User: What shape does this take?
Amino acid sequence: MPHVRPFRFGIITDGAPTREEWITRAREAEDLGYSILLQPDHFTNEFFPLASLMAAADATKTLRIGTLVYNNDLRHPVLLAKEVAALDMLSGGRFELGIGAGWNRPEYDQVGMPFERAGLRIERLEEALKIIKQSFSDETVNFTGKHYTVTDLNVTPKPIQRPHPPIVMGGGGKKLLSLAAREANVIGLHIKVNDNGTVDATENIEDTLTEKVRWIREAAGERFSSIELNILISGFALAQNQQEAAKQYIRERELTDATVEQVLDNPYVMLGTTEQMVERIQLWRERLGVSYLVIRAEYMRAFAPVVAQLAGK
Assistant: This one.
């Protein structure tokens, strides 16, 4: 049986036009019962995470902050460890470190960075995680790998959360999910993006989640029960009629090859009434152990009744 955890919910957002709107968004998320505010890490975002997440933490009392996710290729792991430790310390221990191998090829092309094969990026991420975890410890960091070398470095500051802030990793392929199963505290179940940027149609059905959880369980072994499982909801609409909502979703996104049934089976799309969403999320926890959902900030008010029912104070 999957382990049972309390539900929690987060919002993801990449910025705001003004300081006032950013602070209002963070405070509203906290008031609506969301547990965490998250930011992605792309050159196209309005904000990079460091400054904006600290501002959100300062404006709130209990809201956690985090990345979904830092791109490992954009920073040396020691620099990232220092940023994360400072965020955790200055936020009073409210930071969650989401980190990934990088996936958005056009972004690499725009800044002249080589987009190397997935296996190499994951290999580099695995080394980075070792350095980051050493940096959070009380040990002097010494590491020699294929991609990084660190010698006799005492990394400060140290995070409040020990041994380290929760590490969040997500993925759709077996190799990345297996690494996450060995290293992460929270694992996101995502679609697998091919090296050419395409996504297989079979990734958008709930049956694939069962296989991904099986990979995680096999790689995690005894630590599986301590792992929190997450899904990021990318499409959302409150509607009395799910069929009509799915048709509207297809029209708006010009998904000429998609059927209503495929849209309604897509685990990353949430359509219907509050009660239908609550039931679906409860089934995910029962069948898969998924208890942590993230939704885009533009939907946080409409989705708030679901949060209240499943994670209300």
Observations:
- Residues 118-136 form the longest helix (19 residues).
- The first strand starts at residue 8 and ends at 12.
- The two ends are 27 Å apart (CA to CA).
- The chain has a mean pLDDT of 93.
